[in-house]
Please model this.
Amino acid sequence: MAGVPGPAARHIGQLLQTGLAAQKAGQAAQAEQAYRQVLTIDPRNPDAWQLLGLLAKNAGRPDLAVDHMRRSLDANPRQPGVWSNLGNLHLAEGRPADALSCYDRAIALTQGNADFHFHRAKALHALRRLPEAEKACSDTLKLSPRHVPCLLMLGLTLTDAERLSEAEAALRKALTLAPDHPLALINLGACLRTQHRYAEAEPLARRATALAPGAKEAWLLLGNVLGDLSRYEESIEAFRAAIARDPLDHDAHRNLARRLWTLGRLDEVFNAIYGVMRAQPQSARALDIAAELQAEFGFVEAAMQNCSLALTLAPDDPSLLRRQTALLLRADRPADAVPLLRRLLEQQADNIPLRNDLALALVRSGDREAAREVARQTLSHVPHDQYALALSGTLDRLEGNNPLDINGCVAVFDLQAPDGWADRDTFLGDCLSLLDRLHDTVNEPIHLTLRKGTQTSANLFAQRDEAPLVALREQILATVRGYVDAMPADRSHPYFGRRGKGLAFAGSWSSRLRDGGFHTHHIHPEGWISGVYYLQVPPAADAGDQSGWLTFGVPNLGPEISLPALHAVQPRPGRLVLFPSYFWHGTVPFQDEAPRITIAFDLIPT
Model:
């Protein structure tokens, strides 16, 4: 308190102690009064401003909290704890770049504080700078090897980097140090779920709900795992339990609505959507949830109205602005989406989905050169981003250059029966009998590409151990290994150059299309090699008009972009088709009473 006379300084000290005691006792008004009295004596007192900032944060006023913390730092910038607190506020606001700058200032002032390094790891993770986030976790653990929150962050970072065995090890270490830590149970359960180890994840999720019954994250994980295990009613109840804990949780509402839709319970879907709005009509989050679900179920205009209303309540909310860009693209207004996407990228420069949407909006708006530059920048950071590769290939075709190498990449194999089956028809019959039990829903997943049919949940090959599926899995892997071994040795190629020593299933599922069914044209963003195996094909596929055929090369970007198919493959029972995950592909609709039944999958190199 330089410049404050001795008696005044002593009075300030007494007022700060009075405020702290009141704050500790939960008497926020009295604490604020004491701190305001300090500021009448010393308007730049950094301690008073910092403590007022903490009061504002606890009162749910992050805007005031940021202002007060900044006033404290203006008065005295050598306060590492205040820099860290300001960083925490920015991180909660969704401004990880600003948070990172604050944590760096705190660390520069106090090198050996493990918590500052941990917070820095959180900001880097939010920025998707995963190698740096891992390094920050390592720095934290060197200072504090038993830092459980950091072990949890390390597990999350390694999970996102697809280093699942290392992630699991970090999370198990955290659970050993804190056996009753709900978040350790939740994160380990989520990591096991990512590995498709659903039966192992369930008891962890249940233990988390028992230890922390008010934690929505535990109920959400349980709902997802039970859905993976096809225990749909229990899954629905778990999602409802998550919503009871947080009535404005996006994920719980989204997953509940999707589950109800697949079970054909349409009235409950729409009751869920409008119930959110009725419960909190002046809540921006409630309106955003309603907008998201309305858009997903095809009510785009209503969604835009609710998004606009939400933005009047929270005009600078990044998630709402993101929703608005998605809705503008859905409403075929790509030019209006471009400036909003650029604005969002100023704050989230490393956000790849945002970059891909900007490239999409630009190409749909006719600015192909700018779209190509955005896609190029994305691929310079993430060379195997499947959407950016698909967009680049589409731009090449629009400019008349370098059409997709269909013949070199798409491969067709007619597989015979695996060992243990007398013939292919017997084998296919055993597979179909099994899949018939697994297609236990009414509607297709609303957010996926299938139309008029059903699709199994979870990772089929990872979840099931029945003999027909195990045999098919091994037969497919053996075929793919031969396909990969025959690839040209071209490290610069976006497809061939990605070869690794092994293969892992990123996903596998069965689709059953009924009369009039098809798949919209799409790519597989999580894959490298995608494939489809045909178990049952309707007679319509032999009609000569390509009904039910698999087609390649038709981009699904918007009505402004129209290109014909480059290739088509006729489905046949026992046929396996392999192709790059970034190739646009879809299914020609067919009219036939007999269903079209497939198993599709994505593989990644290991």
